[in-house]
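Question:
Write out your own:
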Amino acid sequence: MSNEEVTPEEAAKMLPAGAALSWGLVKPPQRGPKREMSIDQIVSKAIEIADQDGLAAVSMNRIASALGFTAMSLYRYIPSKDDLLILMQDAACDIPLTPERPPHEWRESMREYVLGTVAIFRKHPWYGDIPILGIPITPNNLRIVDWALRPLRDMPLDDFEKMSIVLLLSGYARHCGMLQRDIDRAVQAGSSEEEFSGINYSVALQTLVKPEQYPNLYPIVMSGVYSGENEAENTVGDDLEFGLERLLDGIEQYLNRKISGSIHK
């Protein structure tokens, strides 16, 4: 792998246009509608539309109409819809980061990263609808990655291990974020959290699920845990927190084994 430095102009040519725009590597148009528009203004309006009506509602025509310009005017600033999506995704990641904690509070730091990432999916429900096409390459997105790496900085891990832990946590955050987003959407559409969890179907399931057919599921359904019926009696906590704590337990065990020298690479 080469570490050869390139000029900003050369870097811009290596990136998708949307990513180059996010880094400020592309000069704004010198001609246009009195230069009254800006990339930030276009992206902000696109996010406003997506937050309200979903990603499918975002089009250059609709954004231009909302801003009082023509769609062709927008293309002078952002070359394509794909480039706009890159910029929207990066803008959604422009969130305040938590203050740095001392090294021994690494679990709390990782928890803050995961919960902060989940919050992005809930605030911008369309965020998870943008397909993953590669590694993060835009400034705010990389800032999130840097945030995740912060508690790992002084740990006895190599770079591969650090990034693998970040991918583990980000994958969990994405899963939980999209699940919570879907719950939010269902509730907004007229459902309820009880209906989504299955509480309304608990009695029916307890009648239909028989131990002969479902020997492992049967006791769970009968206990009410499957539908969250006895959640008040559950001392573990919610699913997100429980799963996150187990991930952190695994990371802690791995670190302890590394320190004791029982892991050899």
